[in-house]
Amino acid sequence: MRGKGNAVATRELRSDAAANRDRIVEAARAELSKSNGTADELKLHVVAKAAGVGQGTLYRHFPTREHLLAAAYRDELTELVDAVAPLLARHAPLDALTRWLRRLVEYARVKRGVMAAIEASAWRDLYSDQHHRLDEALGALLDQGKAAGEVRDEVDVTDVILLLGVLSRIPESDWERRVPTIIAVIIDGLRRK
């Protein structure tokens, strides 16, 4: 009997640990949203308190600020990737692509500070398996658009990413005015004539 009880306690602990981790990441995401993505302003003791855990629990899951930022990034990236199928189910492919690009661009805007806060080595170690997911999501949108005759056949993921690169040059003060126009120009360029 005793062995069974220990196994159950271990499972409960693992479930509780997973719940703690999820609360910590969610609290970090909420704090990052409050600071408009400024990672330097992310106070780990504030995150721990908001998650209802001690700082020791936070550090057991995330030994550095970069590890916590990486987890928040992965969760938000998953939301972006997971948004593709519902958008395609509700909208024509080019409209779905437009809506998804707006989400992606807004995400990139808010996360400028997060990305800048992560050192190159940490970026390689913590994010190396993530970027292909965005490429795959964008590829699915483009493929659906091509199949529907809405997107030019010669366009690929790299073309769109290169076009989106111009957004990094927009000053925050011009963001609201310029981004909708730039997205519209990109979509017009992707449209099959």
UniProtKB/TrEMBL annotation:
Question: Gene3D superfamilies, from UniProt?
Answer: Tetracycline Repressor, domain 2
Q: Do the record's keywords include Glycoprotein?
A: no
Q: Which UniProt keywords apply?
A: DNA-binding, Transcription, Transcription regulation
According to the UniProt entry, where is the signal peptide? none
Extract the InterPro entries matched here: Homeodomain-like_sf, HTH-type_TetR-like_transc_reg, HTH_TetR, Tet_transcr_reg_TetR-rel_C_sf, TetR_SbtR-like_C
Q: Which GO terms of the molecular function aspect are on file?
A: DNA-binding transcription factor activity; transcription cis-regulatory region binding
DNA-binding region at which residues? 43-62
Keyword Transcription regulation on entry = yes
| Domain spans labelled HTH tetR-type | 18-80
A Pfam family annotated for this UniProt entry: TetR_N
Q: Which PANTHER family match?
A: HTH-TYPE TRANSCRIPTIONAL REGULATOR BETI, HTH-TYPE TRANSCRIPTIONAL REGULATOR RUTR
What is the source species?
Actinocatenispora thailandica
Protein's name according to its UniProt entry: TetR family transcriptional regulator
Any stretches that span the bilayer, and where are they?
none
